[in-house]
Amino acid sequence: MTDKFKINRTNLSLWKGIAMVAGTFSFIICMLVLVNYIQINRIDPVNTEVINSLVDRLNDNPNDDQLREQIREMDLLVRKAYFTNQWQVKAGGYLFLFGIIVTAIALQLFYAGKQQLPQISEEEEENIILFREKARKWIVIGGSGMVGITMIFAFLTHKELGNQFTEATAITKAKQVETNQADATVVEVVVKEEIAEPVVEEKVEEEFKEETPKEETVVPAAKKEEVAAEKAKTNSYKGTYPTKEMMANFPSFRGPGGNAIAYQKNIPNEWDGASGKNILWKQPVPIHAYNSPVIWGNKLFLSGANATSREVYCYDRNNGKLLWTAKADQISGSPANPPEVTPDTGHAASTVTTDGNSVFAIFSNGDLIAVDMNGKKQWAKNLGVPDNHYGHSSSLIVFEDKLIVQYDQKKNSKVMALSTSSGEEVWSTVRKVRVSWSSPVIVNNGGQVEIILAADPCIASYDVHTGKELWKIDCITGEVGPSVAYANGIVFALNEYASLVAIKPGEKPEILWEAYDYLSDVPSPIAYNDLLFVVTSYGAVACYNAKAGEILWEKEFDGGFYASPILADGKIYLMDRKGVMHIFKAEKEYVEIAASALGEKSDASPAFADGRVYIRGEKNLYCIGK
Amino acid sequence: MKKSLAFISLLIFFVGMEFAAFSQQQRFPKPEFESGYAQPVTSMPVPRDGMFALLDVLVLIAVLSLITWFILKKRSRTGVVAVSIFSILYFGFFREGCVCSVGSVQNVVLALFNPGYHIPLSALAFFVIPLAYTLFFGRTFCAGVCPLGAVQDVFLMRPVTLKKWLQKALGLIPFIYLGLSVLYAATATDFIICRYDPFVGIFRFNATFFMFAIGAAFLLISIFIARPYCRFFCPYGVLLNLVSRVSKNHLTITPSNCIQCKLCENSCPLDAINKPVVVKQMEDKRSATRRFILLSLIIPALMIVGGWTGANFHENLAKVNSKVRLADEMLHFDSKTMKESLEIEGFRTSGKPVEQLYLEAAEIVKQFYYGGWILGAFIGLVIGLALSGLSRYQYREDYSPDKGACVSCARCLKYCPVEK
């Protein structure tokens, strides 16, 4: 006899009890999770009303440290609450699942216990003919309904999408052709101007006036005239940049214009700090900082700062004698307490700059000082404490009589030009960017001198005379540290976790190519001829074809790099974090020339004079020569 | 009783393990973005390495063989339940519902229409192996290997029988869903089966509120209506249904000859038992034949109407494609009055020329135009065949499983008093 129809008797009351407890538990958990979920959705931890109002108050009163602290605490609290809520929802989800599983099992066992022997239904069967008729009817109704609803939708939303796109393609192409034609005409005019004009700066304005009617005759449409006039206005710089004087010296971070190219010759390759080989002199620097030396004539300048003191130093570059120290103190508006900075940035990460008449230095608290070549204070001002969580590190640079300051902060970022003689603001342009640590680079791009700046989210160019934004392109993200490089009309920018981009500048900048293999968060790249050299902070160096973006060579070093490389005499000088200078040829293939140790750690870029290299170590300043 | 307690202990252990792993993750919350960028909900778990992908395929074969043996040889419902629970745990919670046979349809279609796409071998295996088993043994895959079916099955407690005509009408939805998923996969637009899978978010603990609500609703309905997703939505079920109809060794209710005791009559919660058709219920042969011929003849007309409707609706269908949506947005974007969306900003920063986007979007819209015709015609064909099929009468004397609709859950087996 089979036991097929044997009914498994289970403890009905037990399983019913378990099912009820687990079911109630699941229901309660489900409700709690729902409430929590709704709460999470209503809160935006980075945009709460209370914190926003406190931040507004802080903007009105930026030196209120107590308020700042209060905001931080509030912020932390809100974020903690947010993540705790998230955790609770997920943990609740697991508990709910567990509850549901137990309920399901208990109910299954309960119903299994209530099973009855199979019964023969006495009910009248659904008539097969009727069922089929009904099924056909409902399929027809369903199908017709579907066709009807679909057609109504199609009719109401129909807009010839495909044709619209095709037309839009044609219109965009036609516009492009028009723009190209306009550009070609403008270029033609500009070329004619250049040929007609002698390269004498004083006569530029006159020549421009003379050329204007000619321009009008060449460009037919009114719109094209405007474009040409606009271009002619901005293309008015006929001098050379960097100037010969700048090229003869090393006036700013990454050399003249900040483009990482030095013009000095006979630079030594080999030295050894431990044995003193080729070390001409070595001098201690009073206060440590991460800025690099700059040179004008026989004088070498750098700065040092800690929480209490901010100083500018001048050394005789021939014998290493500390000629003078200028203190940046008693500056009106300077905060009583310095801002918090991280140890690897410090209070004077920005490199000083000089125009041969004055030396300019900026510090982490926003103090900006100008001293003459003999150390006498010319002017000083406080720009407001930079809202920068690591510490301000953008270096200064001079163009003619303007000191350019890139002041990217968490809020109210700007770039400004101050008069080198008085410190008064010549122009200031608001930048819609996030805080950055990169430095300005000034280039002469086809007769137009531009300041090119990098910060999340864009690479932007500004007219050095007026501060007007010339172009910008959104292509960079994150905490941008490296500055841009420029060569042959192409701007190169990169940042860690973003990408390396080659940009064709202009009114409508274009990305020529993009790469992701080697990215940097601190050192800046070098562009030279048709090559681009990218240095990463973890120790890799790569050489790219600057036009096509393909990697020509790549090389790994042990030490890691914070210092930006400089090109001098056809060679690249790259200081690793252990203090070893890696020198290699700026060529399509990697050719090592030397690896010379300083004998102490260094994160500063070298400065050059004919036959000499100047390096700032962790504690000392070195002069290297033969 | 002991078995049940042991099982609950195992579940506590399993959920506990998952919970511990989840607690560890919480120390590193995802970053937030000031730009307003929202972390997307992951639609697929990390792909498995070669060896593990092979392991998944081997597990699939082993579990399919085991459940087939349980159904056909052992005729054991308990075995089916045990395999179902294993599948929920392994293919569901452990493998997070991916790779899954239901979704693999889209991988196959994408590979057929896009030569640049190389279908993962595991996806191909998950598509082919259940079909092969179904061809020989019926839908044993649905019985308890597919985690989506299994999870609905364990929730079934008080089955309610739906009206037959309603089942027939709702049974056309999977065909429409299959057609849509093929269209979107062929145009490389989206894998809609995966995106709108009601249970995968629950398996992964990352369902959006909407999808969680849908999943929960399906499970609640499953308490009363057996396998609502399998019967009225599953697109892979359509293929299995068709293949299973010609299966050689499909499950039989009786191990020997049917004695027409009627005991099994109401045993199937899916209503997939064909009852004997008594002569008195059969329609007049002449009128039935005339209707059958008439309905068969209007199939081409239905296909044309369907195709024309689909073609007219192609713009709406195309708007699911992200490229078309972006191009449409770009076309109507006015920088003076409108705020730039993240999508437009992203496109602009990519440096891609806008005319190229328009060109590509126009091409996709064109594909959807033709796709709309084919989809509509397919739906018309399905409706036509369903209508003519409902005019076909087959004389039957015994109780036998409806080979297409039966998912071989083995519930009916113990109702049969016949011994071998």
Strand order of the largest sheet of chain A: 1-27-28-29-30
- Cα end-to-end separation of chain A: 110 Å
SS-based class of chain A? alpha+beta
Helix and strand content put the structural class of chain B at: mainly alpha
**Mean pLDDT level of chain B:** 87
CATH topology of the largest domain in chain A: Methylamine Dehydrogenase, Chain H
Characterize the quaternary organization of these chains: heterodimer
Written overview of the protein:
The complex is a heterodimer of chains A (626) and B (420). By secondary structure, chain A is an alpha+beta fold. Chain A folds into 3 domains: 12-113; 161-234, no CATH class; 244-625, 7 Propeller (Methylamine Dehydrogenase, Chain H). Chain A contains 8 helices and 33 strands. In chain A, a hairpin with a 5-residue loop joins strand 13 and strand 14 (425-430). In chain A, helix 1 (12-42) packs antiparallel against helix 3 (65-113), helix 2 runs antiparallel to helix 3 (65-113) and helix 5 (161-196) packs across helix 7 (222-234). Chain A is elongated, with a radius of gyration of 35 Å. In chain A, 40% of the residues are buried. Chain B is an all-alpha fold. Chain B is 61% helix and 1% strand. Chain B has 20 helices and 2 strands. A two-stranded antiparallel sheet of chain B has the order 1-2. In chain B, helix 2 (50-73) runs parallel beside helix 5 and helix 9 (173-186) crosses helix 14 (235-244). The longest helix of chain B has 36 residues, at 354-389. The two termini of chain B are 31 Å apart. In chain B, 40% of the residues are buried. The chains are: A alpha+beta (626), B mainly alpha (420). The interface between A and B is large, with 73 and 82 residues. Chain A: InterPro entries: PQQ_b-propeller_rpt, PQQ_rpt_dom, Quinoprotein_ADH-like_sf, WD40/YVTN_repeat-like_dom_sf. Chain A: The chain crosses the membrane at residues 12-38, 91-111, 138-156. Chain A: Keywords: Membrane, Transmembrane, Transmembrane helix. Chain A: It holds the Pfam family PQQ_2. Chain A: Residues 279-429, 525-586 form the Pyrrolo-quinoline quinone repeat domain.
